[in-house]
């Protein structure tokens, strides 16, 4: 089968298309014929070894020093179950599924074997494979943090980075929870964020965000670029600042200081993904409350080009990779 292999850390050009053995399904696994995957910022960071300095050594100890031990990257897929192990009861041949591949990666290939207990479920009936492939990683992260922030009916929520992979889903999920949503993005992305349902949109290129009509209950920084101290000033008492990118040492210490010395809380950490949460998101999609914003689509052979585009930092929503073609 064809797969994109990352032999060493580096620029997008290190990604090479190769013929590799097709995986053999184990007793507790399903073999998925992959129709679509994504090139997202997390994959790009792994490929480029873009790790925070204080975590560089432990991450490379876990993942590999000169290159990733798991050569086939790809954190999320959508496809069709081609075969199942003898102990599998939850899925059947022909099921259309979408899944997070987790720490095993392997999504950049024509086929992937996933344990039955993976973060996986039946694909939303009203989504294409390309649209569904972009959901498991970013939408699950958005849902995790918004739940951490206890976002609910009538709350005022700011989404910083509202046009990005996590941000586009966060706007829609917060709206589904009944919040009043203010999106923050660049000029070029204002209309997209409005289309996703944001009640208000702030263009950060027009100046520092220091004044708002009313303080926010929750500020969710999806890209790790908002100033924590400036953001906290925009929060109500007992408000929460959520950070999906919370690994720089200075930001960690600043968050701890604020959480200890005030009623406002800074919450970061690594998001956890569950099948239960993926099913919740699937239901939102089928109810028409969430959709995928696709910026560009590439083929598996164009993976290096797709990663180069992600590296620009200017993608809107999601960059999707078409792998196998539907019959």
From TrEMBL:
Residues 10-321 form the Enoyl reductase (ER) domain. SUPFAM superfamilies: GroES-like, NAD(P)-binding Rossmann-fold domains. GO terms for molecular function: oxidoreductase activity. Gene3D superfamilies: Medium-chain alcohol dehydrogenases, catalytic domain, NAD(P)-binding Rossmann-like Domain. CDD domains: MDR1. It comes from the Bacteria. This is NAD(P)-dependent alcohol dehydrogenase. It comes from Mariniphaga sediminis.
């Amino acid at each position: 089968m064809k797969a994109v292999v990352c032999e060493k850390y580096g620029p997008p050009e290190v990604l090479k298309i190769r013929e590799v053995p097709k995986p053999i399904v184990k007793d507790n696994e399903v073999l998925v014929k992959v129709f679509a995957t994504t090139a997202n910022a997390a994959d790009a960071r792994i490929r480029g070894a873009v790790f925070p300095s204080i975590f560089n050594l432990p991450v490379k100890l876990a993942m590999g020093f000169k290159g990733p031990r798991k050569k086939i990257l790809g954190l999320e897929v959508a496809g069709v179950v081609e075969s199942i192990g003898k102990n599998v009861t939850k899925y059947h041949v022909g099921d259309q599924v979408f899944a997070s591949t987790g720490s095993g990666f392997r999504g950049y290939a024509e086929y992937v074997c996933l344990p039955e207990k993976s973060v996986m479920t039946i694909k939303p009936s009203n989504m294409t494979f390309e649209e569904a492939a972009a959901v498991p990683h970013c939408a699950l992260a958005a849902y995790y943090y918004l739940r951490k922030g206890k976002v609910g009916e009538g709350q005022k929520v700011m989404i910083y980075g509202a046009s990005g992979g996590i941000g586009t889903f966060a706007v829609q999920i917060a709206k589904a929870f009944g919040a009043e949503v203010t999106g923050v993005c660049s000029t070029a992305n204002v209309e997209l964020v409005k289309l996703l349902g944001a009640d208000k949109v702030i263009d950060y290129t027009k100046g520092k965000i220091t004044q708002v009509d009313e303080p926010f209950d929750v500020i969710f920084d999806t890209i790790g670029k908002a100033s924590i101290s400036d953001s906290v000033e925009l929060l109500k008492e007992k408000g929460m600042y959520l950070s999906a990118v919370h690994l720089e040492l200075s930001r960690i210490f600043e968050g701890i200081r604020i959480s200890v010395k005030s009623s406002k809380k800074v919450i970061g950490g690594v998001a956890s993904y569950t099948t239960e949460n993926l099913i919740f998101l699937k239901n939102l999609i089928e109810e028409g409350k969430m959709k995928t914003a696709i910026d560009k689509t590439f083929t598996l052979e164009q993976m290096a080009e797709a990663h180069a585009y992600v590296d620009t930092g200017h993608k809107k929503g999601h960059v999707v990779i078409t792998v196998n073609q539907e019959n």
